[in-house]
Write a structure and sequence with these properties.
This protein is α+β, with helices and mostly antiparallel strands. It has three domains: 114 residues, Alpha-Beta Complex (Nucleoside Triphosphate Pyrophosphohydrolase), CATH 3.90.79.10; 80 residues, no CATH class; 55 residues, Winged helix-like DNA-binding domain superfamily/Winged helix DNA-binding domain (Arc Repressor Mutant, subunit A). The longest helix has 15 residues. The termini are far apart. The C terminus is likely disordered. This is Membrane protein. It comes from Neisseria gonorrhoeae 3502. InterPro entries: NMN_biosyn, WH-like_DNA-bd_sf, WH_DNA-bd_sf, WHD_NrtR.
């Protein structure tokens, strides 16, 4: 049986489950894909399953062999561009899963971890933000091509708000809004009316079946969630250094954080403690290994983990 039959054969159901599995590995934000990076794991909802989450785990196991961890439901999408065998639009029920990246030797041969920012290059501002500036320049051209002054001003205002153009500030959580604007402007290959003579490499790797929109929604949710719940620890190994923790938060937010401020705020939250192992064995000055405190309830609120706090 095909690992993802909905991609090649008539659909058996109008409802598909689409899990977005995210990991942070060596300071990089990663997403698990199938079909050579063009799809997220997915499969039709089976009436034989007792729950949606059971269906999600089934398709993840079947298509990727990636062990599951934290999972929560995202949103429901209707893909009006796809129809099942009865002519009905396909409904996606999406999930966000936070995992630790499994080795290639464990994964299904068709499953592959990808750099998340390969799909959203403008979202990674840990460098100079040049990719974002190039995209904003193209969006300005699109805005100025409006038929009326009212529409032009509306587009420009939306660009300022979503893309952090002065006097507005960049918001990490607006991943989906920025993606939707690129779709509307025809600056991504998946757009209903993609712009002619435009190099879509500027706006990232494409995905089939509107899965890049689902991924954008997942990244928006994760960036918002790490500000008020300690889900970052779902992505960390049992023991880690404060630098590894900071690098992981930076990978998710796409921003560099101020080292001293970050450490002070993490310690004030009283979420971590020194591990029994002591210090890391890396070269140079040894670093204290930490771990997440077992007595901290999973739903404890974090007042602020500092996104963004500026340069390190």
């Amino acid at each position: 049986m095909d690992a993802y039959p909905e991609a090649e054969a008539p659909l058996q159901s109008i409802v598909e489950l689409v899990p977005v599995l995210i990991a942070v590995t060596d300071g990089g934000l990663r997403v698990l894909t199938v079909a050579q990076g063009t799809l997220l794991p997915n499969g039709p909802l089976s009436p034989l399953r007792n729950s949606l989450q059971a269906g999600v785990k089934l398709w993840v196991a079947k298509q990727t062999s990636q062990p599951m961890g934290y999972v929560e439901q995202l949103y429901t999408f209707v893909d009006t561009h796809r129809r099942n065998e009865h002519g009905m639009p396909v409904l996606y029920v999406s999930y966000l899963g936070l995992v630790r990246e499994a080795a290639d030797s464990i994964l299904h041969p068709d499953a592959k971890w990808q750099d998340c920012y390969g799909y959203f290059p403008w979202e990674d501002l840990r460098t100079d933000g040049g990719q974002r500036d190039a995209v904003v320049s193209r969006l300005r051209i699109w805005a100025n091509s409006a038929d009326t002054e009212e529409v032009r001003q509306k587009r420009l205002k939306h660009i300022h708000l979503c893309w952090g153009v002065e006097p507005e500030n960049w918001s990490e959580e607006y991943v989906l809004q920025r993606y939707e604007m690129l779709y509307e402007s025809g600056l991504i290959a998946e757009a209903a009316e993609p712009q002619a003579n435009f190099d879509f490499a500027l706006t990232g790797q494409t995905m089939r079946h509107d899965h890049r929109r689902v991924l954008a929604t997942a990244l928006s949710r994760l960036r918002a969630k790490i500000k008020y719940r300690p889900v970052i620890f779902e992505l960390m190994p049992p023991e880690f250094t404060l630098l590894q923790l900071q690098n992981s938060v930076e990978a998710i937010s796409g921003r560099l954080l101020h080292k001293q401020n970050f450490r002070r705020q993490i310690q004030q939250q009283n979420l971590i403690e020194p591990s029994d192992t002591g210090v890391s064995g890396s070269k140079g000055r040894p670093a204290q290994l930490c771990r997440f405190r077992d007595d901290v309830l999973p739903d404890r609120l974090i007042s602020d983990i500092g996104l963004p706090l500026g340069s390190r």
